[in-house]
């Protein structure tokens, strides 16, 4: 299951082989409340087909209308604004008077799209810099800390998975979680030392490793953009991973099991070199309490909790950056 951005790029690449004009629309600035963040993309074709999202739907409708009526440029990039006035904000469905600026880019060079897709397929992050006047595109490797930037002359966007998910256990719940997590821009690695479980793993675009779980966590070079979820149903394997994961800077560490099983797990972990604060980081039972019972329901509950914790982590980091900038200035 691809993320929305990858779906847009794949669609763009497919459409380029046809005879119709193709545009890539990118959100470059937002003001006030807006339904989509900077970097959100939409692929648009001359016959009005569109894939992706830059708003709640009204702006897409307007772009489709312009494409159908031949009103979009095919040889120059165009910088447009929506929702600048309160009336426009209401008309285009932007909340609370929010507004945004978009770049409408005619895509004529097929090669850069393929190179970006190849990089993502290889689990690499990549930056794309577009020079608006010349429409020239430059590509270079990116890091998770790179962000979308626009200086009125060049636009730099970041592509590829910004977050990583290490799953312990290659069972059915793990397969659902891995597929869904890729749609949320996670690079997914699955660890299972059991040969029989690895042989049945069939989720595309994931990394499958056979190390013991504690070694896998140590080799993973865990950072604050990493989530680790133990789903093997084998306490020995799950606990091995948790012993290292709870000492790491991972933003989320969770383990499958009932409340009673997780209480016993915490008692076992306390026998090792983990502090009470480190053990308290464990989300167990893993996921939000939504009454989930089947593997796909459990996967949804885990992802919902990951989204909640991840967004709080990002918001806290953004607040910290704002305070730092204010103090430095």
SSE topology sketch:
Blueprint: H1 4-15, E1 22-31, E2 41-45, E3 50-52, H2 58-68, E4 78-82, H3 86-91, E5 99-106, H4 110-121, E6 126-131, E7 137-141, E8 149-150, E9 154-159, E10 163-168, H5 172-182, E11 186-191, H6 195-199, E12 207-209, H7 213-219, E13 226-230, H8 235-245, E14 252-255, H9 259-269, H10 276-279, E15 282-283, H11 295-328
Parallel strand pairs: 10-11, 10-13, 11-12, 13-14, 14-15
Antiparallel strand pairs: 1-2, 1-5, 2-3, 4-5, 6-7, 6-9, 8-9
Helix pairs in contact: 1-4, 5-11, 7-8
> End-to-end distance, in Å?
44 Å
Based on DSSP secondary structure assignment, what is the total number of beta strands? 15
Helical content band: 25-40%
Beta-strand percentage range: 15-25%
Radius of gyration: 22 Å
The profile of the biggest β sheet is: 6 strands, parallel
The number of distinct structural domains comes to: 2
Average predicted local confidence, pLDDT? 89
Which spans of ≥5 residues are poorly predicted at pLDDT below 50?
A: 318-329
With strands numbered from the N-terminus, the spatial order across the biggest sheet is 12-11-10-13-14-15
What structural class should be given to the helix and strand makeup?
alpha/beta
Tally of alpha and pi helices: 11
Shape: elongated
Order of helices and strands: HEEEHEHEHEEEEEHEHEHEHEHHEH
Describe this structure in words.
This protein is α/β, with parallel strands linked by helices. The protein folds into two domains: 4-159, no CATH class; 163-309, 3-Layer(aba) Sandwich (Rossmann fold), CATH 3.40.50. The chain is 38% helix and 23% strand. The chain has helices at 4-15, 58-68, 86-91, 110-121, 172-182, 195-199, 213-219, 235-245, 259-269, 276-279, 295-328, and strands at 22-31, 41-45, 50-52, 78-82, 99-106, 126-131, 137-141, 149-150, 154-159, 163-168, 186-191, 207-209, 226-230, 252-255, 282-283. The strands form three sheets. Strands 12-11-10-13-14-15 form a six-stranded parallel β-sheet, sandwiched between helices. Helix 1 runs antiparallel to helix 4 and helix 5 (172-182) crosses helix 11 (295-328). The longest helix is centred in the last third of the chain and has 34 residues, at 295-328. The protein is elongated. It starts with a helix and ends with a helix.
């Amino acid at each position: 299951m691809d993320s929305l951005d990858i779906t847009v790029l794949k669609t763009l690449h497919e459409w380029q082989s046809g005879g119709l004009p193709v545009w890539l629309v990118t959100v470059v600035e937002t003001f006030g409340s807006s339904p989509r963040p900077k970097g959100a993309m939409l692929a648009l074709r001359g016959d009005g087909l569109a894939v992706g999202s830059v708003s709640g739907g009204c702006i897409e409708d307007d772009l489709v209308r312009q494409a159908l009526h031949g009103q979009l440029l095919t040889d120059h990039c165009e910088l447009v604004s929506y929702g600048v006035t309160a009336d426009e904000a209401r008309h285009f469905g932007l909340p609370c008077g929010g507004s945004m600026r978009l770049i409408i880019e005619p895509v004529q060079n097929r090669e850069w799209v393929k190179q970006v897709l190849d990089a993502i397929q290889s689990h690499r992050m990549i930056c794309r810099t577009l020079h608006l006047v010349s429409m020239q595109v430059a590509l270079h490797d990116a890091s998770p800390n790179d962000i979308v930037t626009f200086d009125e002359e060049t636009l730099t966007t970041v592509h590829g998975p910004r977050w990583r998910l290490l799953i312990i256990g290659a069972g059915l719940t793990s397969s659902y979680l891995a597929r869904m997590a890729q749609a949320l821009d996670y690079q997914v690695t699955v660890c299972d030392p059991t040969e029989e479980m690895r042989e049945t793993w069939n989720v595309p675009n994931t990394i499958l490793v056979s190390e013991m779980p504690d070694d896998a966590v140590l080799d993973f070079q865990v950072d604050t953009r990493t989530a680790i979820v133990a789903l093997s149903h084998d306490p020995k394997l799950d606990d091995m991973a948790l012993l290292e994961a709870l000492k790491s800077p991972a933003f989320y560490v969770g383990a499958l099991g009932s409340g009673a099983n997780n209480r016993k797990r915490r008692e076992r972990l306390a026998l090792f070199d983990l502090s009470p604060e480190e053990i308290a980081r464990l989300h167990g039972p893993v996921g939000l309490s939504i009454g989930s019972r089947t593997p796909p329901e459990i996967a949804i509950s885990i992802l919902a909790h990951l989204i909640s914790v991840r967004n709080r982590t990002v918001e806290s980091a953004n607040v910290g950056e704002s305070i730092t900038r204010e103090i430095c200035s």
